[in-house]
Amino acid sequence: MMLAAGLVLALLSTAALNGGFYLQHAASQGLGKLTLRHPFASLAALFTNLRWVTGFVTGLAGWALYIVALDLAPLSLVQATAAGGMGLLALLVRIGGVRLSARERVAVAASVGGLLLIGLSLPAGAAHTAVVGWGLPLIWVLTSLLVAGLAAVPASIVLRPGAGLAIASGLLYAAGDVATKAAVSGIEPVYLFAVMLPLCHGLAFVSLQLAFQRGSALATAGVSSLLNNLLPIAAGFAVFHEHMPGGLPGALRGLGFAGAVLGAALLAGMGRSDKADTPDSDQAHRPGVNAASR
């Protein structure tokens, strides 16, 4: 019963998070250039925009639901459920006036199908989490911080606009999720992970907001969400020693994971190449947005 409640909360969480990302991305296209050189002016531009604030508050509600879900269900199951949020993001893009391709529709179907398979595997119970020390979670978080720095700065030179920052954001949000799981699981010292959590999420927030002005919704929020879903699933097995059930339930759950991940990967891939989901041409010629895209 607790497992089912946790997964329902995970679904509500991913709906709120991806809806919030969509609203924030849409709002950022009409703002002046966001820059680390003028942090207070950039924050003021965000927090005085009603559409952006609505997206931000919606995302915060989703994050709160996510924390409760982690306390009720294993990390890998929560994140696999959250992977279906990529389908919602694509639907929001479609509602916003962008026509979905056949490949994107397949991606949405794969995500939803994956969730259904995970649901069918639930009667077999949850993957059990072994008691772990602080070493593995801390190594995961510190490594994520290092790789995120490389993606945001050196690697961004060879990546498409916004992709490096989106990758950094996904890595950092995932690291924050690992720290959250460690904290709510009572892994000592709890205060260490309590400090890592806002650090990772704060840096991820900055990276994602900067990415929003440089790329499309699927290429920025999509790539970030993809990594934020994939990496904690891997951490569930590598760091928290979660195990899959055996037999048919294990096969269904494995296929469910694969479907959710495949759907997310296809959507993120379309975001990298789909011209329709780029900022409107009139917005791209606004001084602030045009400067941010260079």
Compact overview of the structure:
The chain is mainly α. Helices cover about 75% and strands about 0% of the residues.
Describe the structure.
Helices cover 75% and strands 0% of the residues. With 294 residues, it is an all-alpha fold. It has one domain. The protein is globular and about 55 Å long. The relative contact order is 0.17. The model is unreliable at 270-294 (pLDDT under 50).
- What portion of residues is helical? over 70%
Describe the oligomeric state of these chains in a short phrase: single chain
Q: What is the succession of H and E elements?
A: HHHHHHHHHHHHH
What is the strand tally? Answer: 0
Distance between the termini: 51 Å
Return the domain count: 1
Radius of gyration: 18 Å
List low-pLDDT spans.
270-294
Largest β-sheet summary: none
How would you state the average pLDDT, rounded? 78
* Individual helix count: 13
Indicate the overall shape: globular
Q: Which structural class fits the helix and strand makeup?
A: mainly alpha
Strand residues, percent: under 5%
